[in-house]
Design goal:
It contains no helices and 24 strands. It is mainly beta.
């Protein structure tokens, strides 16, 4: 569970009004052309901190999500106990410096983290904690969505029922057909938090979420989970017995008949004695992003960074 968290977003420029939260054009990170991924040297099969000094800094950072066109990047930063969204523009082959972007009603600052972008790049889903009509006094963790309007991210709203409930909904992931995976502690699950799938309907709504069951869900509970666009594999953060640290990343591949295979620990190249979480694979399928934090709980966390690694590391864990 996250508390007092900031989200930073790096995004595209477009014609029309300035993105929400901008008083003027933000400064650029560089005046020289940069290739994708901030011009960073791409990693091999050993994880590296992503964009040191820009994304991974002395602050606590997590998440790492690109839009399908690779021109927007989202990450989260914890700064002085204040949760703040940031936004940056890619234009003329340069990335601008992250700047505040507020998408909650009233443009207020509130917890906003764990983002996922729809396949068409027009919807931004995230975990938020902010009052709304169904929880005006003591809001819990809910899934919110902001839509791109005239090139800018519009005011977000809570994803309606049957996705949202009085329970907590966490870590949304949108797959190729627009369906939504997320974790929830709603009644009827196998553990403290289970992974659910809500089918996207032709009219844009979501069908009743379905618990995907074991072996992904169990009595221990399911953490942050990335699901491939074609739903051929997923990566989950879990504290299953036999792990290396406070939370490890596991991969599960879809088997014949549609069932999920037993999750396999990604090993000590990826996992450490700390907490690995927030998995996400770039839209081109080339790189696995994940987060690592130092501390048994969020209150005890002293450091956190965003990492990336060549996604080819996943292939060795596929089982017949």
């Amino acid at each position: 569970m996250r508390q007092i968290i900031a989200i930073a977003i790096l995004g595209t420029a477009s014609a029309g009004p300035a993105p929400i939260g901008f008083a003027q054009e933000p400064p650029r990170l560089s005046s020289s052309p940069q290739p994708p991924y901030f011009g960073q040297p791409t990693p091999g099969i050993r994880p590296e901190r992503f964009a040191p000094g820009v994304v991974s800094t002395d602050a606590i950072e997590l998440n790492g999500v690109f839009t399908p066109d690779g021109r927007e990047f989202f990450f989260t930063r914890l700064i002085d106990g204040v949760d703040t969204m940031h936004h940056s523009v890619f234009e003329g082959a340069t990335w601008s410096h992250p700047r505040p972007l507020l998408v909650f009603p009233g443009r207020v600052r509130a917890v906003a983290v764990d983002m996922s972008v729809s396949p068409d790049g027009q919807e931004l889903y995230f975990l938020g904690q902010h009052p709304h009509k169904d929880a005006p006094d003591k809001p819990g963790y809910d899934l919110w969505v902001s839509r791109r309007v005239d090139g800018a991210w519009s005011t977000a709203h809570v994803v309606p029922a049957p996705v949202s409930t009085a329970a907590e909904e966490l870590y949304p992931v949108v797959v190729a057909d627009g369906s939504l995976y997320f974790s929830s502690n709603r009644p009827g699950g196998l553990g403290g938090s289970d992974l659910y799938r809500a089918q996207r309907l032709p009219d844009g709504r979501f069908a009743e979420p379905v618990n995907i069951g074991p072996p992904i869900n169990n009595e221990i509970g399911t953490g942050d989970t990335y699901v491939a666009p074609d739903e051929s594999y997923l990566i989950v953060s879990s504290r299953r017995p036999g792990g290396l640290g406070n939370g490890d990343l596991y991969v599960s591949f879809r088997q014949e008949g549609g069932r999920w295979g037993t999750p396999v620990n990604l090993g000590d190249t990826i996992n450490t004695d700390q907490h690995e979480f927030c998995p996400m694979v770039t839209p081109d399928g080339k790189y696995l992003f994940f987060s690592r934090r130092w501390g048994a709980t969020w209150e005890e966390t002293t450091a956190g960074d965003v990492y990336w690694v060549d996604a080819s590391v996943l292939a060795q864990f596929r089982r017949p």
